[in-house]
Amino acid sequence: MNDIFDxxxxxxxxxxxxxEVIDYLKKTPLDVRRRRFHIGQLDEIDDFPMxxxxxxxxxxxxxxxxxxxxxxxxxxxxxxxxLWHLLIERxxxxxxxxxxxxxxxxxxxxxxxxxxxxxxxxGYQASYPHLSDEILNQxxxxxxxxPFEESLRKNRKRFNPARPDSILEHGLPDEKLTRLYKDxxxxxxxxxxxxxxxxxxxxxxxVVLHNEPDVTTARDENLGRVLEELLxxxxxxxxx
Length: 240
Prior knowledge:
Helix content is 47%, strand content 16%. It is α/β, with parallel strands linked by helices. Strands 2-3-1-4-6-5 form a 6-stranded mixed beta sheet, with helices on both faces. A hairpin with a 2-residue loop joins strand 5 (196-199) and strand 6. The longest helix is centred in the middle third of the chain and has 20 residues, at 82-101. The relative contact order is 0.20.
């Protein structure tokens, strides 16, 4: 049996600490990462670069070509709610390409799937059914829980207007963050089972990192200890 997760799905509000967790794991030597966290070489599948490409395309179409925008309105909101689900379908497609190109992909790699969803655009209850059976059959969920006020605070703090496309430095205006992510359906989505979420017949194990007080920003050994505890718990659930 392999000693690493096949797939970890990383969820949480914007600026909850997801990117910081990934950054910490990437900077941990591979042998230590496998031993402490059951994570191999990291292959990230994040929907943020996908949606940012849409923003850039719309800006080019409107400002440089004088054509209609395809994905978003002038305020940066999606024209159709189903585009949120298209991003999830794209994640599934990208994952299938990994398996196609590397038949023994999971001997070395842990796929780390990352996305955030708020109730305003369907929440996790609407998005998860769009993941493929390939993903759901092998996935484990790591959710980072912060109240909206903490998401707002950290979103303001990390935003670098010179690098709005950066994974670690992107941010949303307060008004947009409030509209899209203030309400979250995570508690309803996970249900009453403290260990597993059933999605289209797949029992997917999960753990929750309660990130208040903040343990992710410093990216130090305090975060390492928390990750080791939670990921080992998740690993044992996965073996069930």
